[in-house]
Amino acid sequence: MKILRQIGSLAFVLGLFTAVFAGLPWYVVVSEDPAAPWWLRTAVFCLLGGILVVLATLAVEQWLGRTSGEAPAPAEPSSKVLLMNSADIPGREITGSLGLVQGHTVYAIWLGKDLSALVRLILGGELTEYTEMMGRARAAATNRMVAQAAQLGADGIVNVRYMTTSVVGSAAELLVYGTAVRLRD
Known about the structure:
This protein has helices at residues 2-30, 38-67, 111-123, 128-151, and strands spanning 82-83, 93-107, 156-168, 171-184. It is of the alpha+beta class. Strands 1-3-4-2 form a 4-stranded mixed sheet.
C-alpha cells in the first residue's frame, strides 16, 4: 500500500511540474498571437528554468547522500553520555555542571509525502509521513546535543527538553537542550 501511495504521489508531482514547466512555456511559444511580450516570455522561462535547476540539484544532492553510504541518524545516540529529563541521574552523583548544550535541526518532507499526509487528514489516521520526519529530526538534534556535550567532557545531560516549531508549510524546527554534567561512578 505504501508503494502504491508513493507512486500516486510521484504521479501528482510529475503532472504538476509537467503542466508548469512544459505546458505553460509550450503554450507561450507556439501561440499564434502571444498574450505576453517577448521580455515577459523570457522572464517566465528564466523563472521556471531557475526553479527546475534548483529542484534538480536538490534531488541529485539527496540521491547522492543516500547512495554514498550515508546512514540515517540512529534513533539513540551512540555516545556514552547519559540523558535524563530529570535534575539528577539515579545512582550517580553529579560532580560538576558544564553548562547548557543543545542540538537543533529543521526538517521538511517532499511534496509527494505532504500530499499523502493531506489526504490522510481528510480520511483520518496517523500521519506517518510526519511521524517519520519528526523521528529523524529528533534523532539528528539529539545526536548534535550529545556530540556537543562529549566535546565538553560530559558524562551526562540532565533536564533534557525538546521543543518544536512549525517553520513554513510542512517544515518543522526541533530544538533539544539540557545541562551537561560530570558524574562520579
